[in-house]
Structure formats: C-alpha cells, structure tokens
Amino acid sequence: MFKASNLACYRGEEPLFQHVNIELGDGDILEVAGENGSGKTSLLRILCGLSPPDDGEVSWRGQPLCEVRNNFFLEMLYVGHQNGLKDDLTPLENLALDVLHSEQPSQITPVEALEKLQLRHKNHVLCRSLSAGQKRRVALARLLLKPSKLWVLDEPINALDKAGRVAIKELIQQHSQEGGITIYTTHFPLELKGAPQVMTLS
After folding, report:
1. How far is residue 23's CA from residue 15's CA, in Å, rounded to a whole number?
2. Which residue, of 42, 53, 117, 163, has the fewest CB within 10 Å?
C-alpha cells in the first residue's frame, strides 16, 4: 500500500541518506531511528510528500505519489516536530479550524478529542499559556479528528509526561489494529505490543 524505493537526500554534495527502501501494508508500524542530524525529519517530509527526494520514488496504493498527491493527502496525516498551533487561539479553536479546513468529516468532535487526550479542562485557555506537553497533546488530538489511513509522526511523544506517552502509544496500537499504518521517529522507546519494524539512518 505504501512504498518507498531507493530514496536519497543530499545536503549540499554530501548524502544525508541513500538507498532507503520501505514497504508497508495494513496495520504496519515503522520506527525510523538514528542520531540527531541523520536525516529522520527529512525522510519523513519526503515520505509524506512535503519535500521531493533527490533520488528514488514514493508510491501510494501502487501509484507514484506525484500522480495521486490529492488522494494521498486525504488519506495521510502528518504531525511534525513543530505543533503548528496558533498561540492566540484556544485548543478548541485550533482544532475547530482543522475540522473546518478538512475535506473529510471528523470522526469525533474537538471537545471529545481533547477529552481523550486529557485536556478538556484546557479547552478555553489560550495555547500560549499551555505547557510544552499540553501543546503537544493538542497537536496530537488531530489524530482523532481526521480518518487517515497513514500517520506520519515526527517525535510524537516529545515533551509528554508518562500518561501522555501511554495515551499516544495506545492510539498508535489501536490505529494498527484497525488496519492503519504508522511511521514515526522517537528518542524514547514506545514499548508497543508486538515488534514494530525499525529502520536506522546512519
């Protein structure tokens, strides 16, 4: 369903990574590991169609990504290292904007999503007043709003406390059980049930 063939990315004339091959189907989970500067974020941006590879090809449902970009974006959700929140809006207002701009109906309401991420008591607090971990939970609440087949997550548990890490781990496992695909990077082990595929960039 999702395939990357012989991907390469260069920084100047030096290769950041080369010969990256990935093939994922229903329920698969892939952890992208590597030291800082190894190209994890660059790879994720290529995999989700935000940056072009210097070599190789990404395909979705058997077709090159460049030919099915619009359909791919409807089925993919990317949560980057930055939370992408408007500080002058509340968590509820940020998620309501996401729902408004989405081309697909939301699975649950923003209020329900924040409740599942244990943030309902912060619904009406400006995001600029939230802690780093609370902002991360708001960003990750998007996973509950959009019915996406593929999740691409850059350091999803960054700044989260133990309860937050458990909540995200459970979301990823449930997504897998329902046939969803997850690609993520992390500096901390998620300790998922079953062994996810691991690819290390060096």
Report:
1. 22
2. 163
